[in-house]
Amino acid sequence: MFEWIVRNGILVTVVVLIIAILGLVAAFRIPVQMIPDLEVRTISIRTSWPGATPQDIEKEILIEQEEYLRKIPFTGLQVVRYPAKLRISVP
Hints:
By secondary structure, this protein is mainly alpha-helical. Helix content is 48%, strand content 7%. It has helices at residues 2-7, 9-28, 54-71, and strands at 47-48, 84-85, 88-89. The N and C termini lie far apart (63 Å). 4% of the residues are buried.
């Protein structure tokens, strides 16, 4: 088999080029809807309240931020985290 490929190198090269060109044509003809969106979207919000406890931050800030963020039209929202630390909230 390898001997045939070596003897017919030009024919093999032409066949490989034809297959590569057909592959490129097929790749460019794929509709945009079939190509997945691989962009990762992240929203980070950091609020601080000097001297507040995590419970105060949760009650006064995080709940309102969560309600506001829930109203934004997300497509495919999967995870929402609301950690509250001493004087800082990071929803």
